[in-house]
Specification:
Layout lengths: L2 H22 L3 E7 L6 H20 L8 E7 L4 H13 L5 E3 L4 H13 L3 E4 L15 E3 L4 H14 L6 E5 L3 H16 L6 E4 L8 H10 L3 E5 L2 H13 L5 E4 L7 H6 L2 H4 L3 E5 L9 H9 L8 H18 L4 H8 L4 E3 L2 E3 L12 E6 L5 E3 L2
Parallel strand pairs: 1-2, 1-3, 3-4, 4-5, 6-7, 6-8, 8-9, 9-10
Antiparallel strand pairs: 10-13, 11-12, 13-14
Length: 373
């Protein structure tokens, strides 16, 4: 064997070893998709803070199968067309192995089809529209409940606790907002309460005075709103400014301190009711993480811990299959229980949580929300 040939073989062997070593220690790219700009950017921040802390903690413990997690941000601004562009970029350019997201159900719907077609597992911490997991997509999961579960809790509370006789239902015409409003309406109707008003508003609007006039004329003792805090805030303020004292009830789309800001102060949000999962900050499983985030100067409100738990679930699935195949990871997740900061979680064949834990919260005069007994 010639000296040159031997050097060539040696160089090839070293190069191959280097390549294999690089692959063995390659980062596992995971997308975090949500609204990082726009009116709902507060929820994108919750997603990012939760996922970032989870990635830091998992990496410190050795990563996934010896590889480190690297997060890739995808800003969809709660706009469906932008969500499609984000999804295609995460799949084609960033080559992510999994996605945490999206936030708005109207964005999760088209984006999850792209991930599923590419065989990439995705888990939304926040999208509650039932259709997301009713389409037979094998790699789609959620870390939250569904609107048809949330609507039952809201409807029963309005009837049994608030004793409402006249309910005005308002929605934002979006997949999430109208879907949640319709689910609550269905439960109210089932309980014998027929709405006195059913109206839609447009996301981005701030002047709801004509709508408030209709609500006042309806004599409603409860106003139920399906939508997000950028519209809920101004709506509840204008209701109060026009002397409408009806109880204001909404869902998990207003779980942000920004509700108080958009309303103009806690004097307007005091007494507002909303459905959300059982308070994750009170769950012993997440105590250490909550303390860590608070020490860093961040209060883990809303979906922060849901995002953290989503990355825990993905990491557990990849560790379980000893790889990053999305289809295999999805199969694993549907047959295993995963310990998370939200407690033990398990999923059915659709990708829905087997147990939903919606409860009622109330906002106080300090601009904070608390789970009701």
């Amino acid at each position: 064997m010639s000296k040159i040939y031997r050097k060539g073989i040696l160089a090839l062997a070293i190069g191959s070893a280097f390549t294999l070593s690089s692959l063995a220690h390659a980062d596992i790219l995971i997308g975090v998709a949500g609204p990082f700009t726009g009116a709902s950017a507060a929820y994108g921040e919750q997603f990012w803070k939760g996922a970032s802390q989870a990635a830091e903690d998992i990496n410190a413990a050795g990563g996934i199968n010896g590889e480190k997690i690297k997060l890739v941000q995808g800003d969809d601004a709660c706009e469906p067309k932008q969500a499609v562009a984000v999804a295609n970029r995460l799949v084609d350019s960033d080559k992510v192995k999994a996605v945490i997201g999206h936030f708005c159900s109207s964005n999760t719907m088209p984006a999850s089809e792209i991930y599923d077609e590419a065989g990439i597992i995705s888990i939304t911490p926040a999208s509650t529209n039932p259709k997301i997991t009713e389409r037979g997509l094998a790699t789609v999961f959620r870390m939250c409940g569904r609107d048809d579960q949330q609507g039952i809790v809201a409807g029963d509370y309005i009837v049994d606790v608030l004793k409402a006789k006249k309910v005005a239902i308002v929605h934002d015409k979006d997949t999430y907002g109208q879907g949640l409003a319709d689910a609550t309406k269905a439960q109210l109707n089932k309980r014998g309460v027929k709405e006195v008003l059913y109206e839609g508003l447009t996301r981005g609007e701030k002047d709801f005075n004509s709508l408030v006039t209709k609500i006042r004329a309806s004599g409603a003792d409860v106003v139920y709103f399906g939508g997000l805090h950028p519209e809920a805030g101004p709506l509840v303020r204008q209701l109060r400014e026009q002397g409408v004292t009806a109880k204001f009830v909404s869902g998990d789309g207003i779980v942000s301190m920004d509700l108080v800001t958009t309303a103009g102060g806690p004097q307007y949000t005091k007494g507002v009711l909303m459905t959300f999962g059982a308070d994750p900050l009170q769950n012993p499983a997440g105590k250490t993480v909550v303390e860590t985030l608070r020490k860093s100067g961040y209060e883990p409100e809303g979906y922060t811990l849901y995002s953290y738990a989503s990355l825990q679930a993905l990491a557990a699935a990849f560790a379980g299959i000893k790889g990053t195949d999305g289809v295999k990871a999805a199969e694993w997740l549907k047959s295993h229980t995963v310990p998370t900061v939200l407690g033990d979680k398990s999923w059915d064949s659709k990708g829905d949580l087997k147990v939903s834990d919606y409860v009622m919260y109330e906002w106080d005069d300090k601009g904070k929300y608390h789970q009701l007994p």
